[in-house]
Amino acid sequence: MVVKEIISIGNSQMPTVGMGLWKLEKGLASKGVRDAISMGYRHLDSATDYANETEVGIGIKQALDEGLCTREELWITSKLWNTDHRAEHVRPSLLKTMNDLQVDYLDLYLIHFPIALKHVPHDQLYPADWIYDLNAECPKMELDNVPISETWKAMEELVEEGLVRNIGVCNFSTGLIHDLLSYAKIKPAVVQVEVHPYFTQEKLIRLCRERDIAVTAFSPLGALSYVSLNMAQNSDNVLGEQVVLTAAKRLSKSPAQVVLRWGIQRHVSIIPKSSNPKRQLENLQLFDFSLTDQEMSEISALNRNQRFNDPGEFCERAFGAFHPIYD
Which position among 50, 109, 132, 198 bears the catalytic label? Predict the structure, then answer.
């Protein structure tokens, strides 16, 4: 089963459902990626910060060598890390990612966070941490004063050079999107943000739709990835909501499939993460059913404006510096 549903981005076509690679253990990444491609995944969402791109690259190469698909049939996304925002570091960072992933271009390259940190040379620590000097007496984040405009211009040069097909941003607010659009020669093709029924992002999605920017939802199932990080509670479980359970029963689908279907019916691409083959396959099986308008509205009404991935919360606790990027 190959997912053929796509979102058109200029001359490119991004599969609606992708495999999120955050928290995919190194030991499982190579086989996991190869098996996911065999299963039908054609959209892989990676990042330097995930610390598994070498292993992911091995899995991609295995799949290509076995003829499971061609490189052109894959959509591969990666992200520029916070310590490489200065113009002179953007291209080397991309080339390192491409070398690790064993590809000669990316379909999409994103600025991972609107947070510029002091550069850490790749031969000193790779991937770099949030913390500048892990051996310091008081280890903490060290900010660098790099305007987004400088980073974006360097990203545009990657497109002009043919190293990446599309560029975009991740974890940006509507205000930063407005600002970026005011000077971008190449506008962002994709905005990747946290979206789930507890955090519906209505205004941001509408803005992107009106400006012809695609939206990718990370953490589309909500809190599941964050409980182990103490960034969410077990009670923050959208899969246990009655409206979700009722729809799942009506459709003979799992609660997770209902929530993921809610996402794609909002014309948003989704990148659920799972290392469980049964759940991976289940996450692809979203196109033989639909939610009613009432079910869509009732699931959207679960919104709490509850963001789980918030630097304004986790940076101070984990990295020694208060650094909010959202109001």
Answer: 50
